[in-house]
Predict the structure.
Amino acid sequence: MPEKVSVRLWTGDDIEYVFQSITSEDWGHTRRDIERCWRLEPNGCFIAELESDPVGHVSTINYGKLAWLGLFVVNPEKRGRGIGATLMRRAIDHLEQAGAETIRLEAEEAAVPLYRRLGFKEEFDSLRFSGHTNRHHKEPVRKGIEHMQDEDIERLVDLDSKYFGSQRFRVLKRLFDDDQRYCFIAKEGRETIGYLMCRQTRNAFWIGPWICEDPSRSGELLEACLSAINDEETQLRFGFPSRNESMPTLLRKKGFVSTGKSIRMFRGEKKHQGIPQGVYGIGGPEKG
């Protein structure tokens, strides 16, 4: 490759570039989403440059022994020159030097060959569904389903870690602080057995992270969320592991339809897998 690629950390001045790049891919992220990723991991988000011009970006999030890669885009006119591989290797080196045993990502099918060359292996499909709600949707909130409170975050960390595969308190806290209106917990007596978080994206609502120990209660969490955003007709999107076999049936009953899939891949040790069967919604392809 004749050009000299350099890789550096993001700064606040890069948020607009990354936002415009992501928008061109129609992923739906807002500037707030991009900034959240950067602020959660300011020393793990990278920009590729050619002659001082940004030509690609990637984010990371470090959960300790488990880490995640996302927001990976190379400018369309610069693809096929090895820039993506250079950028990804820098991110991988950063995570491994920080102690990550397992690195995961969600891959579009076209990108799988690149990730294989970088040492990633397929784990399972990550399914995508979408649907709509409208102002006429109003179901009573069931007993045991409550709006999440600040003190609930610490209480659900152990539950979340069990199913996700690692502790992610700071991510859950940041999502909750950004918009509390669409965050709910499910209780059985005094015990928290599930939760759901939802955020408004550029052109829809993204539902997740969403975890529940009891499949019958997962639908009640969804109903509470739908009721909370019933003020206008809007699109809703989900992503969840294909190993959760009860989820497609639940969504089809609610009128949601399949919109495709990505491939969950991992590099390093196949550890920190959690329990995908209890994951009803991922937090996002960029953070698991």
